[in-house]
Amino acid sequence: MTKSIGTMTRNVVGLALMTALLPLSPSSRAEDVVDPGESEEFPLHHAGVFLGAVTETGCERDATDWALGLEYEYRPVEKFGVGVLIEMVGGEADREFTALLTGIMHPGGGWRVVLAPGVEIDRHERHTAFLLRVGMGYEFVFQGGYTVGPEFNIDFIENSHATFVYGVVLGKEF
Fold this sequence. Notes:
The protein has 174 residues and is mainly beta. It has helices spanning 2-21, 26-29; strands at residues 33-34, 45-56, 63-77, 80-89, 95-108, 111-122, 127-138, 140-142, 146-157, 162-173.
């Protein structure tokens, strides 16, 4: 268990460093990065691919596995959007798929705060459980509406453990 906690700590610290240093990278200071407050218009739609990892703790097996997800957001007002997220987890994770209805607040400056109820499908026992995802991320918007952003989430799973989900979303606004 100590080894798993060490792995999880390294992953969380790595994501935090990446998030902190990304604004300093040459690509994020390039002229093609769009200032989120630059335009009075905001995109109504955003579609993205999530590439990341899932760290399960407090269960039979503490482990980190890969995750791949598809997400869509409809943003009827500037500060709030709703959408769906479907995620697949590989490796030895307890769950195989997650489906969520997302509520996303955009407080400004590229930040995203996520609150999402959903279900997980356990591949070993073939049952579903309710989960609540709470998370945040930062979105860099480039010319043409392309986006890149680190994200960190915690899933609180019914009658179970908390799971950390973190990675990068590659997307397109339209």
